[in-house]
Design a protein that fits this description.
It contains 17 helices and 16 strands. A five-stranded parallel beta sheet has the order 4-7-10-3-11, sandwiched between helices. The protein has a three-stranded antiparallel beta sheet with strand order 14-16-15. A two-stranded antiparallel sheet has the order 1-2.
Length: 457
């Protein structure tokens, strides 16, 4: 069986921008492996493959899915994120000087009424909470500031006694450094991040990286070492498009998240109930997996997994322009962490081939989710406005008409930069047009009806 992530990247010996520029002239027949990532917003989304539902992760989703309106992929991502947090920071995969731990940041994107994002999160939270009662207290809501995040995993603060000169604890720290931040409305978090002086984005980025957290307050700055923080959030496509700014793409906030589109799969007017015995058995298996995982330290891939990783790595690390490209630029790290979570959930000391394959399948679905929601938007308001206008005008627009889109308020160099970006990304092209006077330049949008096949997920 072939997979989307096995596109013929091995035969591509030129950079993606060059490939995309060729599409302006109809070269390659539109078959560049990079081209699908730059399609406009589509209504369809090919479902996630069964390869993602392996081992205990698949068993849990299969047991819960008939009894909830939450989507299978929403349940899967929620389970992997919460399990990875409950495990704690000890098991890891070493890449050079960096340690990748099983702490995931994930966003479920779906319609307000039928996305069933919160339902998926709640089902996974209940089950992992049954497996580890202590972990329930480590789930919090209400991301407002970076200082607030640090407070929940803070170190003890020690000062010297002014009279005796001895050290004394003036602030008790938090012993359990695990923290799962649940945010059913990520839009509120993005709004908080946009405020002047907000440290939230920087702290969350450091948390994903596993770095020491601290603020630069003059008096009693908060610090946290050894924190193991995960984030699981929900947002509608409209809010994601409106709230996610170019800054959050550029500073590496968005690409630390796994963005997954989700919507209702079952209609259960009377709700659904999972048999208590089944829940108990699943919780027992998850609890056993947690115990095994916490006894591990460094985790490695076996030979078959390493072979598959080498095949997939060039595609994962390729350059992709546009907003989608910026938000998937940590693809290899995301797949690595997902494969680690799959392996730990199966109680394995080695990441096996099926774990890498499952992680790749889930990541590919996440990429399709990005394309569905963000299409080929760049996050640059000038660029996005120009391409929208070009697509609405079959005959294209002259440079003067493009300038008029902004009422003449955009500098010439800004306009030139925007057009270069569109050309380099293969989204638009300019051509000289003879007139009675001086030649003019007319710009056209690159048009292609190619899109994902299949129905909604």
């Amino acid at each position: 069986m072939s997979h989307a992530w096995e596109t013929d990247f091995e035969t591509v010996e030129h950079d993606p921008v060059t490939s995309l520029q060729g599409l302006n002239k109809g070269e390659n027949g539109g078959n560049s492996p990079f081209f699908p990532l730059l399609q406009p917003l589509k209504s369809s989304l090919r479902p996630i493959g069964d390869e993602a539902f392996v081992g205990l992760a698949g068993e849990v989703v299969d047991a819960l899915s008939p009894h909830t309106e939450a989507s299978r992929v929403g349940l899967l991502v929620s389970l992997l994120t919460m399990f990875g947090n409950a495990v704690g920071p000890r098991p890891h995969y070493q890449v050079g000087a960096e340690r990748h731990r099983p702490n995931l940041f994930a966003v479920l994107i779906g319609p307000s009424g039928t996305g069933r994002k919160g339902m998926a999160i709640s089902e996974a939270e209940r089950l992992v909470g049954m497996a580890d009662a202590d972990w329930r207290d480590r789930v919090v809501r209400g991301l407002v500031s970076g200082e607030g995040v640090i407070w929940h995993v803070r170190d003890a603060r020690v000062e010297l006694d002014s009279e005796t000169g001895d050290e004394k604890i003036v602030e008790q720290g938090v012993r359990d450094k695990r923290l799962l931040v649940r945010e059913d409305e990520l839009a509120a978090v993005l709004a908080a991040m946009s405020r002047d002086g907000s440290t939230l984005s920087a702290v969350l980025r450091d948390a994903w990286d596993g770095r020491r957290l601290q603020t630069l307050a003059k008096h009693h700055p908060a610090k946290a070492s050894g924190a193991h923080i995960s984030v699981l959030a929900g947002i509608t496509p409209e809010e994601a498009l409106r709230k996610l700014t170019a800054t959050e793409q550029a500073n590496g906030f968005a690409n630390r998240f796994l963005w997954v589109y989700t919507r209702r799969e079952n209609e259960l007017p009377d709700g659904g109930t999972v048999d208590a015995t089944v829940l108990g058995e699943l919780a027992t298996q998850i609890g056993a997996a947690l115990a095994k995982a916490r006894a591990l330290d460094g985790v490695l891939r076996d030979d078959d997994a390493r072979e598959l990783w080498h095949v997939a790595y060039p595609r994962l690390t390729r350059d992709v322009p546009g907003m989608t490209g910026a938000m998937r630029s940590r693809a290899e790290a995301q797949v690595l962490r997902l494969s680690l979570c799959y392996a730990l959930l199966d109680g394995q000391r080695l990441i096996r081939r099926e774990h890498v394959q499952a992680a790749l399948e889930l990541w590919e679905y996440a990429e399709r989710s990005l394309r569905k929601v963000f299409g080929d938007r760049t996050g640059d308001p000038h660029v996005d406005r120009i391409i929208a206008a070009l697509r609405a005008e079959p005959n294209g627009l002259t440079r003067t008409q493009i300038n008029d889109l902004f009422g003449g308020r955009v500098l010439a160099n800004q306009l030139e930069q925007a057009l270069r970006l569109l050309s380099g990304a293969g989204l638009a092209y300019g051509e000289s047009e003879e007139t009675a006077g001086r030649p003019i330049q007319r710009w056209h949008a690159v048009r292609d009806d190619q899109g994902d096949e299949g129905g909604e997920q």
